[in-house]
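Entry 14. Ran structure prediction on the chain below.
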Amino acid sequence: MFVVARWRATGEFPSSLLPGGDDRAFVQDLVYTVVRRLRPLRRVLGEFVKKWPKGELEDLLYVGAAQILYMPDVPDFAAVNETVAAAKMCENPSIAKVVNGVLRNLIRHRDELKLGTELETFPSAIAKRWVARFGEENAEKLAAWHNTPAETFLARRDGSFVSLERGTRVADVSGYAEGDFIVQDPSTATAVKLLDPKPGERILDACAAPGGKTVQIAWRGAAVTACEVNPRRRMRLVENLSRLKLDVDVISAIPSPSESSRRFDKILVDAPCSNTGVFRRRPDARWSWSADKLAALAKLQAQILDSVVPLLSPGGKLVYSTCSNEPEENSGAVEAFLARHPDFAMEASEESLPFETGRDGAFSAALVRKI
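Output, structure tokens:
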């Protein structure tokens, strides 16, 4: 309940608020279920309260109702008892009676409730975009994909990806301390495949944190310079590289042409984006999405792409990638770049649509600078 309350109050990433310990996996499932199903939870709970609750009571009802309606492995009595127990620890413990009454009433009438479609769990603006682009059936499949708990994959040095058994702590996996793997979804492999790093090549990873692609490039023997402007994310990048015992030059800003002693053979721009391809892993991102934010991101992506052009050698390769499925950030961004830079040509592009690939949504394009 406290994680849900903090997220709703501050907008912080739920993943950063989760506790450690043996209960982390369950707490994450519960919190992410609330975040994903917030719209139907609000609508259903509204049928069982005379006046819409606020503060701790609202958060408690979300947590209890999420378990009853969407987590069948949790017995009803446990969902009610644990939520009531949490209510008794609140500033106003009398709300425990309200929580108990509403949740038990919810259980009694559960079979009569209409929870709606998967697509209805998303903001209307996103749902309309998906239906317009993919059609009703595929849009519903896409929404269903993003409403399922995400698998955790480990990327290994040999280029393979291994699915981690649910509930297993990454730090407990054999080889963690030795740096044998990094956590990363298979959809990320496309950008590295298109980049095609070779031993000894000088490569710039322009938006590097948390470092998954940086690591895969370094594993292939390239000399990598990893740039990350955000201090907190840069610290995480350095920690990951240290665990994997990789010698990578980490910088805090994209260098100017005058600062770079020579140009890079290849550049990767894994751009900041709207995260619409990874709503399964970032369920909170759906609630901060907007058309204005999308337009601002597209502008930022263009600025980053333009800033690295002077750093690329003639005949060099620039790979642009996102974890988005929005055309403005993907094909549209590439078309606009090529219009601004006629000395570049498209070599290849790939997009992962989750309802087709069974992997996270992602886009990558390889652009070659003409000699």
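Residues 291-308 form the longest helix (18 residues). Will compare against last week's run tomorrow.
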